[in-house]
TrEMBL record:
Protein name: Histidinol-phosphate aminotransferase
Entry similarity comment: Belongs to the class-II pyridoxal-phosphate-dependent aminotransferase family. Histidinol-phosphate aminotransferase subfamily.
Necessary cofactors: pyridoxal 5'-phosphate
Origin organism lineage: Bacteria, Pseudomonadati, Spirochaetota, Spirochaetia, Spirochaetales
Subunit note: Homodimer.
Gene coding for it: hisC
Pathway assigned to this chain's UniProt record: Amino-acid biosynthesis; L-histidine biosynthesis; L-histidine from 5-phospho-alpha-D-ribose 1-diphosphate: step 7/9
């Protein structure tokens, strides 16, 4: 089933193989990869494990993700790029996205000369399931990307809606759950993989785990897709330091859980505060680590905050999001400074 969806040059690809993949057992003297002999005691003079074995075993232990169903990318962006390269032929195939959503799906599609089909969200900023299913029937995209909670709206889509779209889609349905750790009471699409091997789920260490600078993305899929991803990805795509940072984060899940709860509490409190400001025309309920608001003049507010040394994101160029600002939930001190600035703007 998956094999028929692959680009033939990916299907027939002979993966890069290092000498360390070609023998069993262990060795103390490694003279096979032209590395530097002098690198201190931290091992960074050696190439990283291309399979990220220890990190994936720790993920299986802590996160409950089966080892055979996971791969690590240099951020979720690399995984998005690789999925498009694996399944989409340039100048022939297409991907489908809801709009507005995370812009990288379109960027990587365009860099691979793959057409992008935009399906607008409903007026309530939910997935327009019927419109997406109809577009799937007529356009036959190789990949449908769904971001939930969605960036930049912060809205979570019901699992049943995602399932209906995935069932209607004969290609890959990629569900990006980068922000799901911050959502209350919403089910993951991981459960769909067992019954539909064309579903893949993207997770990340960048948000709840606090490791955006390490660039650690997670691909969860059926083993067949994992095997293809492993042979198609760059051989040493995730650094040793990044892999160790991921393991360290998983060894302190109490800290991760505390960070999630503090972020959610701060988000909800800040949402209440924003609702009291006269210039805020609409607050979009969020299940992520950010809040989207509609204001009188987004550009003026953005420029004012920059003048105060505060950078937020003006999302007004997105369809359906005129005069909107997206605010990431920061530290307690950062939010205090932001409140002072917004209070001054509100009084002006």
């Amino acid at each position: 089933m998956i094999d028929s969806l692959l680009n033939p040059w990916i299907r027939d690809l002979v993966p890069y193989s290092s000498a360390r993949n070609e023998f069993s057992g262990s060795a103390e003297i490694l003279l096979d990869a032209n590395e530097s002999w002098d690198g201190g005691n931290d091992g960074v003079n050696r190439y990283p494990d291309p399979q990220a074995f220890q990190l994936r075993k720790k993920m299986e232990e802590v996160m409950g993700l089966p080892f055979s169903m996971t791969a690590i990318g240099n951020g979720s962006d690399e995984i998005i790029d690789m999925l498009i390269r694996m399944f989409c032929a340039p100048r022939k195939d297409s991907v489908m996205i809801e709009r507005p959503t995370y812009g990288t799906y379109s960027v990587f599609a365009h860099t691979s000369d793959v057409r992008v089909i935009d399906v607008p969200l409903s007026t309530s900023l939910d997935l327009d399931v019927e419109a997406m299913i109809e577009a799937i029937k007529t356009e036959k995209p190789k990949i449908v990307f769904i971001c939930t909670p969605n960036n930049p709206t912060g809205k979570v889509y019901p699992l049943e809606s995602i399932k209906r779209i995935a069932d209607a889609n004969s290609g890959i349905t990629a569900v990006d759950e980068a922000y799901l750790d911050f959502a209350d009471g919403f089910a993951s699409s991981l459960a769909l993989i067992e019954e539909n091997p064309r579903v893949v789920v993207l997770r990340t260490f960048s948000k709840a785990y606090g490791l955006a600078g390490a660039r650690l993305g997670i691909l969860v899929s059926c083993p067949e897709i994992q095997k293809i991803f492993m042979k198609a990805k760059p051989p040493y795509n995730v650094s040793l330091l990044a892999q160790e940072a991921g393991i360290m984060a998983l060894e302190d899940m109490e800290k991760v859980r505390k960070r999630i709860e503090e972020t959610k509490k701060r988000r909800d409190e800040f949402s209440s505060y924003l609702s009291s400001l006269g210039f805020v025309r609409h607050l979009f309920p969020s299940q992520a680590n950010f809040i989207l608001i509609r204001v009188d003049d987004a550009k003026a507010l953005y420029d004012y905050l920059v003048s105060r040394g505060i950078v937020v994101r003006n999302r007004s160029s997105e369809p359906m999001l005129d005069n909107t600002i997206r605010i990431t939930i920061g530290s307690e001190e950062e939010m205090r400074v932001l409140k002072e600035a917004l209070d001054a703007w509100n009084r002006a």
